[in-house]
């Protein structure tokens, strides 16, 4: 009986999650997938898992790029430009890894994803600006939040 109530509550909580929370979750997931590949580099299924992790991360950042490129985006222009530059680096590094896979090349992507996700995970009250706008978009509408509340590829 309580199990069904808990499941209903969890489903409601997932539905009510903000764009910032969804984006943080997606970035943490991407970092985890990449980190697992780095730690288990010699695994027999490495190529398949690396491909999955890189493609997930690339789709996620492509979504951010698309959202940040909107003319009506609410983010502070300077932050928006910086995040678009960061996303270009993510693309470049991803394609480098696809062309010449090396475990140490993954660390930059892991660090970027974790740092942006940590910034998104900071709770911001309505009407407040984040202490440091470290997020990819405008989910909170104040300076630097998430890329417009976009959901993650693959269901994060």
Q: What is the string of SSEs from the N terminus onward?
A: HHHHH
| Mean pLDDT figure | 81
Taking all Cα atoms into account, the compactness measure Rg is: 17 Å
Largest sheet: none
Shape: flat
Helix content: 55-70%
Quaternary organisation of the protein chains:
single chain
- CA-CA gap between termini: 28 Å
Concise account of the structure shown:
This protein is mainly alpha-helical. The chain has helices at 2-16, 19-39, 46-68, 77-99, 106-121. The radius of gyration is 17 Å and the shape is flat.
Describe this structure in words.
This protein is mostly helical. The protein is built from five helices and no strands. Helix 2 (19-39) packs antiparallel against helix 3, helix 2 (19-39) runs antiparallel to helix 5 and helix 4 (77-99) packs antiparallel against helix 5 (106-121). The model is unreliable at 131-135 and 138-156 (pLDDT under 50).
Lay out the secondary structure.
Elements: H1 2-16, H2 19-39, H3 46-68, H4 77-99, H5 106-121
Helix pairs in contact: 2-3, 2-5, 3-4, 4-5
Key terms:
single chain, 156 residues, mainly alpha, 5 helices, 63% helix, 0% strand, flat, disordered C terminus
């Amino acid at each position: 009986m309580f199990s069904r109530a808990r499941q209903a509550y969890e489903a409601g909580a997932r539905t009510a999650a903000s764009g910032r929370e969804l984006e943080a979750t997606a970035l943490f997931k991407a970092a985890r997938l990449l980190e697992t590949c780095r730690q288990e580099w010699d695994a027999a299924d490495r190529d398949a898992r690396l491909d999955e992790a890189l493609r997930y991360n690339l789709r996620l950042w492509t979504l951010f790029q698309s959202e940040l490129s909107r003319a009506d985006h609410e983010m502070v222009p300077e932050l928006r430009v910086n995040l678009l530059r960061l996303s270009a680096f993510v693309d470049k590094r991803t394609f480098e890894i696809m062309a010449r896979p090396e475990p140490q090349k993954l660390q930059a992507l892991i660090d970027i994803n974790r740092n942006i996700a940590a910034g998104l995970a900071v709770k911001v009250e309505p009407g407040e600006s984040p202490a440091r706008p470290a997020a990819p978009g405008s989910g909170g509408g104040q300076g630097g939040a998430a890329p417009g509340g976009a959901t993650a590829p693959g269901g994060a």
